[in-house]
Amino acid sequence: MSATTEISDLVQAALTDRDPDGPIRWQAIADLQRRGDLATFTEARRLCAGQTTTERVLGVDILGQLGTPDRPFADRSLPILRFLATCEEDPIVLYSVLIALGHLRDRRALPTVIDLARHEDPRVRYGAAYALPNVVGTPPDPTGLAALRVLVEDGDDDVADWAALGLALTSADL
Predict the structure, then answer these.
(1) Contact criterion met (CB below 8 Å) for 15 and 32
(2) Do the domain assignments include residue 2?
(3) Is a pLDDT exceeding 60 seen at residue 165?
(4) What integer pLDDT is reported at residue 67 of this predicted model?
(5) Residue 16 belongs to a domain
(6) Are 39 and 4 in contact (CB under 8 A)?
(7) Distance from chain centroid for Cα 44
(8) Is residue 30, in this structure, part of any structural domain at all?
């Protein structure tokens, strides 16, 4: 089986699993992420420009940990994710973008995450609460900490709880 066929088969398996948290989908994503090669990056990038939410989320989910633990495509993935964060309207895609940015742990994502921390949809703010502690850097950026403090007061309990945990973990590093 060629590398292109294997990638295509894994992408199809992930796209056809109707459960976004399903084991088939996430096993295919994990297999793609472990490949960590240019062909997989290229396919994930293509999916990020897909016509459907499902395609875009899959592309983002692959990019977030492509080539783990070294993440050789982090510098190429970051601009794609930041672009999606500015032009995407679907909260599910934005949530996935934030989770991926959190996985990349790159301080350059901080302005993007702070912007989305003010989003009207609680799912997006939850993603921001997850990402912020991972992108504030060391020592933690004061604007990132301020955004976490705002999220601690969020009207959505899940957002507030996750932000409180993130703030506690980040403050422990001070």
Answers:
(1) no
(2) yes
(3) yes
(4) 85
(5) yes
(6) yes
(7) 13
(8) yes
